[in-house]
Design goal:
By secondary structure, the chain is α+β, with helices and mostly antiparallel strands. The chain has 2 domains: 303 residues, no CATH class; 215 residues, 4-Layer Sandwich (Glutamine Phosphoribosylpyrophosphate, subunit 1, domain 1). It is 35% helix and 18% strand. A hairpin with a 2-residue loop joins strand 16 and strand 17. The chain starts with a helix and ends with a strand. Bound molecules: glycine.
């Protein structure tokens, strides 16, 4: 019965609530998962939510493909992992289409409102960073629904309403708060409890934050998604929902207009790639930071293959300066519609050789603490046709702008903080960004999101992506290296302790699950070292002709569902 809900072009609204309940029991019954990895033969979803992974798998079991599954999984994540992503945000989708052996990149990143200006975060001539992080001025034009619908129309086989059914049901009938979501609520309770929408969603009658295992609902979001029917773009970007959103923002002092919503378009972009030690690594172009991941890998490949064990001081001795150099060159990245990003030069053999040489002569400076943030969400999908999809989706920092449209149950992003608020002023991730990434009307902010698909001998062998601001870049690089160079299985690759160095601040973050001797060795190399409980989360699927092996990241929780 559950499968019938997802049959192609079937209108799920026609199903009985008993059928839906059965489906939801199927989706929720395995929570929490007991293993961070899984194997299967035909199709798989690895996500930051077990329920979302299983919703994606159910779509494929009912005949949908990887893009159908990605749409359903994204919408469920927006309910179960609403601190990280949702229809109030945006993302990137990287697709390998098996039949044509082609790659496609979809950019549905949020963009600045048309009334946005570089001066909008200045007060008395001074930058007020908080204005870009919470409240109405932090909110960029959401791209999520436009992107999901563009992907579905081009590659999907099922109706939008069928793919939205699991998210609607979970939002309406309830879903368990995961430990990570409970942590997100706790961390931001002081702020989000000031918003009527958040109070209704995540606090009990006494005003206490919901704990892990409590059943939460978002019935207004369920109604919103139901109203989208099979016209999500018309309804959200031009219909009644657009008016409600804009009216609310206007009343709160925001600058987002009906034109901003009506003019929003996702952009199909040509993915970029480099060769890496016999593999071909594909990712999203700017405004993604996929190119930074490629540059770090290319700098590594320009040297002798590292024979030291994964996670050893010798391995980090080479990796850290190259990672740092990649982040230095990230200053050239921005929205390519506004800035000429010198990608060809940055990924040229000449630049890679020079950058590697410069990087290996490290010098230090003062260190400050990097913000811990687990906003954003990644998942990987492989279907039985061999199609591969990696989606990274975000509302930026935890619970975005800490602002909802209460009557819609809609959580709004704070993606404006991914811009350079003012030259030299670090953002929430302590990234000091360049003028190239300054605010402009309609511009997309530079993102760290870097979905990856790796090919060998013309077939996909690995999918990966991560969440957690700039630690996405370092996390994806390290998991890919652990799998490609050190031949670790996905679960071990994801579990390995990681380091992060984003050049500014001058600091190497070392995860506490790495031995103390490793961080001491890194410190003796001349780095300012700070041990942190954990860095960002990465999930991945290793693909071979007769086997799929997937892993989610225990740092954030999740699930792998396969068949
Ligand atoms: N909002 C996080 C990122 O796009 O990097």
């Amino acid at each position: 019965m559950a499968n019938s809900c997802f049959s192609p072009h079937y209108n799920c609204a026609l199903l009985t609530s008993a059928a839906f309940s059965l489906l939801m029991i199927t989706l929720i019954s395995g929570w929490p998962t007991s293993s961070a990895g899984a194997e299967s033969h035909h199709e798989m979803v690895a996500a930051e939510s077990d329920v979302a992974a299983r919703a994606g798998l159910e779509v494929m079991k009912a005949g949908g493909n990887a893009v159908d599954a990605a749409v359903a999984t994204s919408l469920v994540l927006g309910v179960t992992n609403a601190g990280s992503c949702g229809i109030g945000g945006g993302g990137f989708m990287l697709i390998y289409w098996a039949k044509s052996h082609r790659f496609y990149g979809l950019d549905y990143r949020e963009r600045a409102p048309l009334a946005a200006t570089p001066a909008m975060y200045l007060r008395d001539g001074k930058p007020v960073e908080e204005l870009a992080r919470s409240g109405p001025l932090a909110v960029a034009v959401p791209g999520e629904l436009a992107g999901l619908e563009a992907a579905r129309r081009r590659f999907g086989t099922m109706s939008f309403s069928a793919l939205a059914a699991p998210a609607i049901e979970l939002a309406r009938n309830g879903f368990p708060i995961t430990p990570h979501m409970a942590e997100d609520i706790d961390l931001t309770a002081g702020k989000i409890s000031q918003d009527a929408g958040f109070r209704e969603l995540y606090f009990d009658d006494s005003g206490a934050p919901l704990k892990a295992g409590a059943i939460a609902h978002n019935r207004k979001l369920a109604a919103l998604i139901t109203d989208l029917d099979n016209n999500p773009v018309g309804q959200f970007y031009r219909g009644k929902i657009a008016h409600q959103l804009v009216d609310y923002m206007h009343r709160r002092g925001g600058v987002l207009t009906l034109d901003d919503l009506a003019e929003y378009r996702p952009v199909w972009r040509e993915p970029i790639s480099i060769g890496y030690r016999g593999y071909q690594v594909y990712t999203m172009p700017p405004p993604s930071s996929g190119g930074v991941v490629l540059e770090i890998l290319a700098m590594l490949a320009a040297g002798p293959i590292d024979r030291s064990p994964a996670g050893s001081p010798l391995y980090f001795a080479e990796l850290i300066p190259l990672m740092r150099q990649g982040f230095i060159d990230r200053a050239d990245y921005a929205d390519p519609a506004y800035v000429k990003v010198p990608l060809t030069r940055l990924l040229s053999a000449k630049h890679i050789a020079e950058a590697r040489a410069i990087a290996l002569h490290h010098t230090g400076g003062p260190g400050i603490t990097v913000a811990h943030d687990h906003g954003t969400s990644n998942f990987c999908v492989v279907d039985r046709e061999g199609n591969v999809v990696v989606v990274t989706t975000t509302i930026n920092t935890i619970f975005g702008a800490k602002m909802t449209i209460p009557e819609l149950g809609l959580i709004l992003n704070d993606e404006m903080d991914d811009f350079t608020v003012a030259p030299g002023v670090p953002n929430a991730f302590k990234l000091v960004q360049a003028a190239a990434n300054q605010v402009a009307p309609g511009k997309r902010p530079l993102s760290s999101m870097s979905p990856i698909i790796v090919m060998r001998n013309g077939r996909p062998v690995l999918a990966a992506g991560g969440s957690g601001g700039p630690t996405i870049i370092s996390g994806v690089v390290q998991v890919v290296l652990d799998e490609l160079d050190f031949h670790l299985d996905p679960q071990r690759a994801v579990a390995q302790g990681r380091v992060h160095d984003q050049a500014a601040p001058d600091l190497v973050l070392v995860e506490s699950n790495l031995p103390a001797e490793t961080s001491e060795a890194i410190s003796r190399m001349g780095y300012h070292v700070k041990r942190v409980p954990e860095l960002g989360a990465v999930n991945t699927i290793a693909i071979s002709p007769d086997q799929l092996q997937g892993a989610f990241d225990r740092r954030k929780g999740g699930g792998v569902a396969g068949d």
